[in-house]
## 1
Amino acid sequence: MTTTVGQYLSARLGQIGLKHHFAVAGDFNLVLLDELLAEGSTRQVYSCNELNCGYSAEGYGRANGAAAMVVTFSVGALSAINAIGSAYAENVPVIIVSGAPNTNDHGSGHLLHHTLGNTDYGYQAEMMRHITCATEVVLSAANAPHQIDNAIRTALRERKPAYIEIPCNLANAACPAPGPVDSLLSEPAADQASLDAALEETGRFLYARDKVVLLVGSRMRASGILDLLPALADRLGCAVTVMAAAKGFFPEDHPAYRGVYWGEVSTPGAQELVESADGILCLGPVFNDYATVGWRATLNPENTLLADLQGITVNGRVFTGFSIGQYVEALAVRAPRRASSAETPRRSVPAIPPAARGARLSNDEMARQINALIDGNTTLTAETGDSWFNAVRMELPGGARVESEMQWGSIGWSVPAALGGALAAPDRRHILMVGDGSFQLTAQEVAQMVRYELPVIIFLVNNRGYVIEIKIHDGPYNYIKNWDYAGLIAAFNAEDGHGLGLRATTAGELAAAIEQAKANTRGPTLIECDLDRADCTETLVKWGTKVAAANSRAPKVN
Ligand SMILES: C/C(NCc1cnc(C)nc1N)=C(/S)[C@H](O)COP(=O)(O)OP(=O)(O)O
């Protein structure tokens, strides 16, 4: 039984649970795109450019578990590199497939378009090797199935992007048909002796502690076991905090939830709770400079148990040979049961009083109205900028999710990522919070939201510039040309479309715009929120000065 290389790839993408793949056409991938359409397991969705294509795939992968994208050689793939870097840094398995030169051109001395103008076509794969967990350059149809399977299997296991390069003359070449998908999906069994030893050492750690707290970090997205965390918290009877990049990873209506731990910009009570505990179970944490507020919020290693994707470190010993999911699942049933120390839940952030309808729109009022829009079936995508700080202070009902990109932090990511999330989870409400500066990098993807009739509610925070940068280190470079953001939607609708562009300068206008957005179910609604530049969250100001201080440390004199 045979198929073609392109249809083998297409069948595998469908078998691992994708319903869509993202693409931008180019002459090195047109036949491959035809093969994907012919096999039909996944719907082909187009992006305005390859960077946005990659960001959309990452957003899709966050909601769906994995994603795929198809670009053309060099001019396409090199544009996508920033997005693949994001998927790598944020632990999202994106399969990036690039068309490539005809196999007869290799070694021929031919100079080809869309290349560096020499006869070495290997540079693209070399670049991808640094930001993927597997890089497969297909040069024969016979070997293509092994290479495609290896790339997909490794991406799913490592929770990282993988790269596949398919020459334009092999996409429709015959190759063997795929076998069962189980070989790509099965997780290695835990090494039981190692897991038992890790649990035993964890028990010793817990018995020696009076005050235990769970700290959930963003690498837990890759664990696939977020739904087990409440059972673990119940077993340990401890309070739970999350790091800013893991906002929404633990249900905030759970009695043990105590807010976001972010050093001195934590939600009220969370910093004291974590830093006074003598047993902190850190699950998938990322302690980078932003998360530690410029290296100021650091925990005592004596008091921490570190559970990460590579293994467990506790009481000065490292345990590997099992996944973090297998560890948490076992711990939730075998940890020494501890009496609940969780007090009655309280609002983790002070309530914001509603502003009068005629009042000038403020950041606080905007955040308050957005929070009121979030229900248990909502995904809030928050862009780098003050949107991070507005998202972190939201009170989330159980089931609500927040998606942010706090490790990679490439502005513009959120617009395509929100599109990807909306395609992956059409039954959820999708809200996007994005600043004017970030929006200008990837704005055209809103046209694709119009095209695919995705009812994303976009809060475009127009504070006239790069405010987070202004707070870190000001200069003329932080000020941008203003756009008529609401007016853009008419351009994106063109002959047809259900996009809606609205502008809010007062609390009442915002409330009315939100009602219109909720009723617009056949396209995106962009609400331009007009704010004073100086009107940002207090936490941004506090955090920005500390990060600026870290950035400006003098070089060490040896
Ligand atoms: C310019 C930059 N970061 C530098 C940067 C530059 N280029 C890329 C791709 N990614 C980056 N993070 C950042 S965070 C701006 O303040 C974003 O401005 P905006 O979207 O308007 O948000 P705020 O006003 O809330 O800051």
Note: The longest strand covers residues 94-100.
## 2
Amino acid sequence: VVDIKVDEELKTLSADIISRACFGSSYSQGNQIFAKIAILQEALSNPSLLFGFLNFSLFPTESEKKIKSLRKEVDALLLKLVRDRQKESQSGGTSEKDLLQMILQSAANNSTDRPQQYMLKTDQFILDNCRSIYFAGSETTALTASWTLMLLALHPEWQERVRVEIAEVCGDDDDQLRQCLKDMDNLSKLKTLTMVIQESLRLYGPGVILAREALAKMKLGDFTVPEGVHIWTLIPTVHRDPENWGPDANEFKPERFANGVSEACKYPQAYVPFGHGSRSCIGQTFGMVQLKIVLPLILSKFSFSLSPNYQHSPVYKMLLLPEHGIRLLVRRVQ
Ligand code: HEM
């Protein structure tokens, strides 16, 4: 039996996965860049600054100088990777189908026939997207996997049901399982696991706020919202509303999703772990597929219970984080 902080392990795994998806064969350089972005994120302690707003004072402090130089370093490394890829593409030598290629394609489509003065903006577009994808795509999925394991540690009966389902769909053998999880049809057969993930996203979804700005004066129910006002919807509040979910709204009951989201509550549009509308999460399918592969690989080998050292303290720091980590006791499944 070992006592580990699963959130730390899963964060590394998830960064690895997003780096491969984003940078394909240049993945190890991508990983180095992401490692620096993680340090930058820690230094900023406000990840929104990663999305492009750096409001430094006229006389920067030591820490502001450090952040500025770290960011310059990240951008220079990213730009080198981008230039290498662009050269490769121009000489017809790339067949990469990764996120970087898609971002480059989209930047190229946007900038065709644009005057020279917009060229820098194209680079900025590429850098902002690479940085955002690390933050939006890596931590969110790792946190969902971590909170899910915490809930399964608390509810061994559900942990066992998921393990049995994995064996039924994919068999017990290791190689067979790996092969099985490569097939999307098999992933959609993992109904119990899907219900567990949906319930975990309801109670501990990593995204906490849906933010929108009123671009014009508008009516919202009985309210008149003036132009320019920012409206924040607090996801945990709508996800735990007894009026919508019933008196057991705060309890872990994956069975409520047995017949899908539409029958899990009165107002299904209020289940928004990936947001809503035209600015909802672009990585929803990618995140869910990752969870449906990673969790079976882990659960088929290991069982989990809460460590006596686990301190439950979800805190909001842009995302819903476990303040003291998620410490679980891990045993090899016999
Ligand atoms: C379980 C995993 C994930 C969760 C719970 C999650 C959740 C969210 C939420 C709540 C939003 C805000 C949506 C809104 O305002 O309506 C969002 C936006 C976004 N997500 Fe995710 N996300 C996850 C995984 C990913 C992944 C894997 C990627 C990228 C590969 C990604 C990329 C993005 C991007 C780029 C946005 C901004 C979209 C925009 O502003 O148009 N997310 N996500």
Note: The two ends are 13 Å apart (CA to CA).
